[in-house]
Amino acid sequence: MIVKKEGKRMGVTIELDVREDLRQKREPFEKIMNAIKPLQPGDTFILHAPFKPLPLFPIMKAKGFAYEVEQIEKKHWKVTFVKQGG
Question: Which intervals hold domain DUF2249 (predicted)?
Fold first, then answer.
């Protein structure tokens, strides 16, 4: 969804929880890549995972995202990626 204010595009936020996918032994990489495809500079992607997804960080950085990591619970990590540029 694109939200506009005073004729300017505001950032979009997409949130994805892959904890159940991983519990079910399903690889979420393609789901994550599809979720971020439409994002533009200033948009946010929030990922919930059961561990700190270290292998994803260099991939997301190469795609132009900065990120912050927060451990919510023992098996719940929240990573906020923001598309840079623009």
Answer: 15-83
